[in-house]
Amino acid sequence: MGKVWFVGAGPGDPDLITVKGRRLIEQADAILYAGSLVSDAAMQWCKPGCEVADSKAMALEEINQWLIERACAGKTVIRLQTGDPGLYGALIEMVQALDKEQIEVEVVPGVSSAMASAAAAVESLTLPEVTQTVILSRVEGRTPMPEGEEIEALLAHHCTVCLFLSITLLKKIQQAAQAAGWSPESPVLVVQKASWPGEQKIVRGTLSDIRERCIAEKVTSQAMIILSPTLGAREWPELKKSKLYDETFSHRFRKASAKPEVSA
Ligand code: SAH
Asked: For residue 222, how far is its CA from the centre of ligand 1 (angstroms)?
């Protein structure tokens, strides 16, 4: 019996796959990749004779069947997924089908597009005393949201919110943010095809104009939306310093070299 590896390909740049993911591609007998979202440049590492197929036009049932047939033939099989396999990747639907056949599975994490989008724009998703929380979510479209996860409810936290699969729903986001008390001037970041060589687009705007800016830039698919009170911090004149690097703060790897200032 073979084995199926679910490998995170990363956000687009083939160099952003993990070393482990790349090694597995070099060893695999069969690779099924999501062609619309995973760069076929990753296939340059596969060994001669490795069977490669694109799942773009396949339904989930066909994908499962493809993986099962090859694993049952004793092959080392890779399902190459965009970003990280555990985010909006139908991972469990596939794993359950393989479990039924008692096929061994393993998951190799990947760099999610949420992280790649922040990196592209040189933004930090957390900042001391600004926000220490990141929500990864989506806006309700055809897929219903579980109770309590409506976009208004998530935005009420005023933390960093990264929205997948929602670029056509910017109007809804604007309305929800306003209802949750975000100022119309709040910065919003949209990154399309983050990390894809020559294709990445960064659109910055405010809650009130981000939709028009995205339309003007023709950013209507494959984009990450980030709302965060940390956006633009690179330009701020003053930052609260992270305690980790504060010289008055001891931690496991360093003793404080100075006494904290005593405030009156
Ligand atoms: N597992 C993936 C997400 C798959 S869902 C991950 O971890 O990134 C597909 C959605 O992810 C897209 O609608 C878009 O919102 C986002 N996405 C995927 N690749 C992207 C990229 N390179 N740049 C920006 N957003 C991306």
From this structure: 6
